[in-house]
Amino acid sequence: MNAHNLETVWTPRMLSLLRIIAALVLFSYGTDKILGFPQNRAPDAFTLSWIAGVIELVGGGLLLVGLFTRQAAFVCSGLMAVAYFIAHAPQSFFPSINNGAAAILFCFVFLYIVFAGPGPWSLDAIRNRRSN
Question: Interior CA angle at 121 toward 118 and 124, to 5°?
């Protein structure tokens, strides 16, 4: 397999894998905040942390299966930007000090997915194949 074929075959698959792994991690934050798993540290309902947990749970779930991927990624990217500026940036300008590196990475991974799409391993891709 030459380099061009390797890129053509695996680049879309790696996009799907990036989406799935990022979604799993985000989803785990949502399960922690909303479902109390694994740490049972659920915030009070309708607080900012609880709202973030709902977005992490629902958005992470949608991104995990690749359904309404671009819309979910847009909302999750925005959530991570807001989280960074509300929770992390006030502590310090430097992400290594304010523990905001994950929020920054999530923000830009999800922003990339908004434009790149879900990749072939997604419900959106299946829906698109059936409608064509």
Answer: 55
